[in-house]
Specification:
Length: 335
């Protein structure tokens, strides 16, 4: 009889790993609890995250701090108008050795565990699309040969919402690869005062690696293995369908204000995010309230407002909030 060498799945590991990372990152990042929590959700689910905020809100520092706390390989790409796909994926270099000519593949910065795509909307769509295969299939194809990426692999992209000159809107296919989009707001006065104190003293904080790579991979397996009640899955699907204006029985919000709604990947991410959120909070299984908590981050980059919404100043985030008000949770407990 063969015995498995795989360690048993322990749901408590998710909460333990979350607590360790949250404490370590908190040594550098003041406030922004919902941003840190959602980024960790994305990591645990092996998703990708889009951070949207004005300069100076510690988007880059947050990504670096996460990489340091995990002890993972970290690369940063500054996206610019002249960036080429080869600058991301790598390219074949011609070498002449002992009279023979041969090609050698030089790995690009995408071959890492955590990739920071800084100001991703500053590069043309051709270069942006170089990340599509990497984000979806965890591999890249160059010169007809596929090369796998290391696991875990997480893309954290940043975007400045107030500068439009010299930028290129992300294609819908690219946006859909991101599990979450997070809008960073200005800190409150107390938090900003703490930030000023931390950054104006002659004191460097060194973050330690508090989580092993194998633990992150184990966390992902645990989350995938968590059972989900049918009514929780059905609620996630109902929310996604309610964003689509041409679906039968769609929401009033979609009929009036939405041009295009979220696809099936949104339903998948709602359930996956809810499972991770439940375990992070010490629960054994997700409830519909967990679906609602992750929904704004799943929908805000998948809903395309129509002209009427734009004319009334309604953003995708506003429409997602209205949608959650319209589509009610089931009237029974999830336990």
């Amino acid at each position: 009889m063969s015995t498995s060498t795989e360690p048993p799945l322990d749901p408590e590991l998710v909460h333990d790993v979350y607590a360790r990372l949250r404490e370590e990152i908190g040594k550098v990042i003041a406030g922004q609890e919902h941003v840190v929590n959602t980024l960790l959700l994305s990591l645990f689910c092996q998703g990708h995250c889009l951070l949207i905020g004005v300069p100076g809100l510690a988007k880059t520092l947050l990504a670096r701090s996460l990489a340091s706390s995990l002890g993972l390989n970290f690369n940063r790409i500054q996206f610019t108008p002249d960036l080429m796909p080869g600058d991301i994926l790598g390219s074949e270099i011609l070498h002449q050795r002992q009279g023979e000519v041969e090609f050698e593949f030089q790995l690009g910065p995408v071959f890492t565990n955590l990739l920071l795509a800084d100001e991703i909307n500053r590069t043309p769509p051709k270069t942006q699309s170089a990340l599509l295969e990497a984000m979806q299939e965890r591999k890249v194809t160059v010169a007809g040969k596929s090369r796998p990426l290391d696991n875990p692999f997480l893309v954290v992209a940043t975007q400045n919402p107030i500068e439009h000159e010299g930028t290129y809107p992300l294609p819908e296919a690219q946006l859909d690869r991101f599990m979450f989009s997070i809008h960073l707001s200005y800190p409150g006065k107390e938090i900003e005062a703490e930030i000023v104190r931390r950054t104006t003293q002659n004191k460097d904080v060194t973050l330690n690696s508090v989580v092993e790579k194998d633990e992150i991979l184990q966390v992902e397996k645990i989350i995938r293995a968590v059972p989900v009640a049918d009514h929780v899955v059905n609620y996630a699907v109902e929310l996604s369908h309610a964003t689509r204006p041409k679906e039968e029985g769609t929401s009033e919000v979609a009929k009036q204000y939405i041009e295009w709604g979220a696809g099936p990947r949104a339903s998948q991410y709602l359930v996956l995010g809810a499972k991770a959120l439940a375990l992070m909070g010490g629960r054994s299984a997700p409830e519909t309230r967990h679906i609602r908590e992750v929904a704004p981050f799943v929908f805000s980059h998948r809903i395309v407002p129509n002209y009427r919404a734009t004319g009334e100043g309604l953003t995708a985030a506003d429409l997602a909030a209205q949608l959650l008000d319209e589509v009610k949770e089931p009237n029974y407990d999830a336990d």
